[in-house]
Amino acid sequence: MAGQKHPDMWVDPEDDPRSQEAVLGDERATLLDYLRSYRLTLELKCSGLTAEQLATRSVPPSTLSLLGLVRHMAAVERNWFRRTMAGEDVPRLYRTPDDRDADFNGAVGDDAVVEEAWARWREEVTHAEAFVDAAESLDLVSLDPHTRINLREVLVHMIEEYARHCGHADLLRECVDGATGQ
What we know:
Blueprint: H1 27-46, H2 51-54, H3 66-85, H4 102-105, H5 111-134, H6 151-177
Pfam family, one: MST
Organism: Terrabacter tumescens
Protein name: DinB family protein
């Protein structure tokens, strides 16, 4: 962070890649813009940290960490877009019968674990984006017979999920290196 105009922030406001412009679009464009912004926020809050820093836990007994959040959001993306909306019979990420919180419990400070987490997250985000792009309408109903929900509701839920966890990430990042967000 040396050399930044705002060394206490994880990204200088002038370098922030998130748009501050209003979309002024339809419902789909607005929802996708918010979701894209929150996905990018999670990436930015994790940028420049080592594997150990990403795996730093908040406060005992919590297992919450930035790396855990990345793993968790990969699992959330997969569950809503592949399993629920597309009806794909794919296994859940990071969840086992013995450990429902494996996304957080397995978030250890190892470069290979970090690389795998980001690869999974990016893969699931790419799939979700393609799924939404191909959907004719936000009224599209899920193919999972156990979860009747439409695409609009899933997008709103994903925005809520990212917003909540980006708030957690603010506090986690500040604990790791003192950097605050905007």
